[in-house]
Design goal:
Distance between the termini: 104 Å
Largest sheet: 8 strands, antiparallel
Structural class: alpha+beta
């Protein structure tokens, strides 16, 4: 029976070879004519019409020449599986694409292999060879049906097992110090890192495999316990500059859509937007996720969220419990697996706004107040704290952290945080066990670690957050439940400076009134807060950026307003981030910004000047035009911020970071409308307008922070800087 099946294959191959020979006959004269002045066909046309015909002929001729003598000298123990294996493997990945063209040949060979296996005993030496050839042939057939068959969740591997896709995502890989965008696929037995090839000539997208690690060989800890390579950070000013460019291009796209001038201009802007968002996607993550192959190299991914890093580790470790044997893929098997990724993938687009649907929500812009109440469901007493992450411009950022609640099964934090949202759609919550042992190190990351006890996330639904009331919710995470309350204030309302008739207290009162009442040049609240921060907050990571506990900030606000004599004692007992938050709140609630409403638009124009000499002259003249209390307070604060930036290697707060935090706080005008000059005939969305205005405010403060000295006239310097008691 086997001989009969093989005789049919021989006859079919003989016919197929004769057809290929017939195609080869006109190739030589056509190629010769192509080099003359009157070609019948061009060389590219010939290569398209006769695509890979010579190579196909050689492969099938070799198969036919090998099979013919074996069939002619047939006996029961004769082997042919090696010939079929060689045919479907086509001597390596370079020629594997040849089998995609004559699809009927692949289909026929698959049916033949089915028949041969049916009539081959399991004990026959040919059986495993034929089984392997059938598996490869079936996967080829599956690959070419990508466009017309539904997406599969798995592919066939040896011994009839299924390799299923568990998780995939676009990630940034650090390769020899350079950031590369990759698509990472986690299968039931291996982790594969692929690169998306550029589309050429209308062809469908394909992946190129960069590396893979069998899960049985994957570890998060290097065998030699070597220190991880340093992660090169992209400067914050570059990140913010990219965000501003993105906001500007988005604004231009909206204007083009309204003007309805044509598709070409819109397409050009979308291409620019895609380029800038891709750069931001590469530049933003700085948290390392290292994976190691026990038998080879180590690789480093960069992630922006501890939530996501924990997610990858968890799913890999869980799957590793089911993986026991190491293995390696042949070049053809690896090519087939990589080809299958295109239809198995669950994440189809790089996370860029250009890939989002027009009706998709742009997210929330404004401030989200979150109260972290308590947690329940813990099995043992632990030292616990929570962190909050929100997404912004396509990646997640850590925004707040509760205090550590010591040794309990039912922590009651009841801490409130104010989190700024920039197109945010999701709030993530992580619960950690605090590690106080300095000897306990995380060998996976080369730094001290606190164990993640649970994590969860909440979609930020604009509809449910529209009201002014607090929304209570429970976040379940690994058997633990954390209770939260949330309240959202849109940017339109949260950024308004409210006029105040208040004469007592300090918050919401004009700075000139406060300094006159106190008989000082700098308000007492500013001096006290800066003194306490300089005493114990200069090396605090994220000082001024990390949110302080809202209840502590409100307590300090009330104490300063009431002129409480014990305020310094209160401050000494509070978290330093609450003191920093109190200072920011004071400047934010001033009825008029420190840089004044009158001069705000002039500062915005001056900082945009391209001539450096003219810019310096304008900026300094404007600064010295500020009222005396405003100027002295600003210079007092400016010196402090420069000292904070000197500790950047420890506190991670650069001059640009500080300008980003304080720029809007010190300059945001009390008028509801922007003072940044814009074209009134081309309105832009509020979110884009806000981004452009904030960048201008940041640039004004950054300019003064970067000046080594403020060259004021001698008379002004004497009267303001040296003859005053602050």
């Amino acid at each position: 029976m086997r001989k009969w099946v093989l005789s049919g294959i021989l006859a079919s191959e003989e016919t197929y070879l004769s057809h290929l020979e017939a195609l080869l006959l006109p190739m030589k004269p056509l190629k010769a004519a192509a080099t003359t002045s009157q070609p019948v066909l061009t060389i590219p046309q010939i290569e398209t019409i006769f695509f890979k015909v010579p190579e196909l002929y050689e492969i099938h001729k070799e198969f036919y020449d090998g099979l013919l003598p074996r069939v002619q000298q047939w006996n029961h123990h004769q082997r042919v599986g090696d010939l079929f294996q060689k045919l479907v493997r086509t001597h390596g990945t370079g020629e594997s694409a040849l089998l995609y063209k004559p699809v009927d040949r692949v289909t026929r060979n698959t049916l033949v292999l089915h028949d041969l296996l049916k009539h081959t005993p399991c004990s026959h030496p040919d059986y495993p060879l034929l089984q392997d050839a059938l598996r490869i042939s079936q996967n080829f057939l599956s690959s070419i049906n990508e466009e017309i068959t539904p997406r599969r969740q798995s592919m066939t591997v040896k011994k009839g097992e299924n390799r299923q896709l568990l998780k995939d995502r676009f990630m940034v890989e650090l390769v020899e110090g350079a950031r590369k965008l990759r698509h990472v696929f986690l299968f039931t037995d291996l982790l594969l890192c692929a690169k998306l090839k550029k589309q050429m000539g209308g062809k469908s997208q394909q992946y190129d495999c960069k590396w893979y690690i069998p899960l049985s060989d994957l570890t998060f800890q290097a065998a030699d316990e070597s220190d991880p390579p340093p992660i090169p950070h992209v400067p914050d000013e570059e990140i913010d500059a990219l965000k501003v460019k993105i906001s500007q291009i988005r604004a231009e796209i909206q204007r083009e859509k309204r003007a309805n001038k044509g598709a070409k201009a819109l397409e050009r802007l979308r291409k620019k937007l895609s380029e800038q968002e891709s750069l931001l996607l590469l530049a933003s993550p700085n948290m390392g996720l290292r994976v190691h192959n026990r038998n080879g190299k180590s690789y480093m991914f960069l992630i922006s969220s501890d939530y996501e890093r924990a997610e990858w580790r968890e799913v890999i470790r869980e799957q590793q419990k089911k993986c026991f044997k190491s293995f390696s893929l042949t070049s053809v098997e690896l090519q087939m697996l990589t080809n299958s990724c295109m239809k198995l993938q669950t994440v189809h687009h790089i996370p860029l706004s250009i890939n989002k649907e027009d009706e998709e929500s742009p997210g929330l812009y404004g401030f989200l107040n979150v109260i972290v109440h308590s947690a329940s469901g813990l099995k043992q007493s632990l030292n616990l704290y929570c962190t909050l992450e929100v997404d912004s411009f396509g990646y997640f950022v850590n925004k707040a952290k509760t205090r550590v609640y010591r040794y309990t099964t039912e922590p009651n934090w009841n801490e409130e945080f104010e989190i700024e949202l920039e197109g945010s759609q999701t709030l993530r919550l992580l619960c950690y066990e605090k590690c106080y042992s300095k000897t306990r190190l995380n060998k996976e990351d080369g730094e001290s670690t606190d164990r993640i006890m649970g994590k969860g996330q909440i979609p930020l639904d604009p509809q449910s957050l529209q009201g002014k009331d607090w929304q209570r919710t429970v976040v379940p995470m690994n058997g633990i439940e954390v209770k939260l309350s949330m309240k959202f204030t849109s940017r339109e309302f949260s950024l308004k400076r409210m006029p105040s008739e208040k004469q007592t207290g300090v918050f919401g009162v004009k700075i000139s009134a406060v300094t006159k009442r106190e008989r000082s040049k700098v308000p007492y609240i500013v001096r006290q807060c800066l003194e306490e921060i300089e005493r114990r907050g200069m090396e605090e990571v994220g000082i001024y950026r990390v949110s302080g506990v809202a209840t502590d900030i409100q307590a300090l606000k009330a104490a300063f307003d009431a002129n409480n004599k014990d305020v310094s004692v209160m401050m000494s007992e509070m978290d330093v981030n609450a003191i920093a938050g109190t200072l920011k709140l004071y400047f934010r609630e001033l009825p008029e910004p420190l840089f004044t409403d009158e001069l705000y638009s002039n500062f915005a124009v001056a900082v945009a000047l391209s001539d450096s000499v003219a810019k310096e002259s304008c900026m300094l003249n404007l600064l010295l035009s500020l009222p005396e209390p405003n100027l002295v307070t600003f210079l007092f604060l400016l010196d402090h911020l420069k000292r904070v930036a000197e500790k950047e290697s420890v506190n991670k707060m650069s001059l640009h970071n500080l300008a980003t935090v304080f720029g809007p706080t010190l300059l945001r005008p009390s008028e509801k409308d922007s003072k940044i000059p814009t074209n009134p005939t081309q309105p832009i969305t509020m979110s884009d307008s806000w981004s452009l205005e904030v960048m201008s405010q940041v640039q004004v403060l950054l300019y003064f922070l970067q000046l080594e000295t403020i060259p004021t006239p001698d008379s002004k310097r004497q009267s303001i800087l040296f003859s005053t008691e602050v």
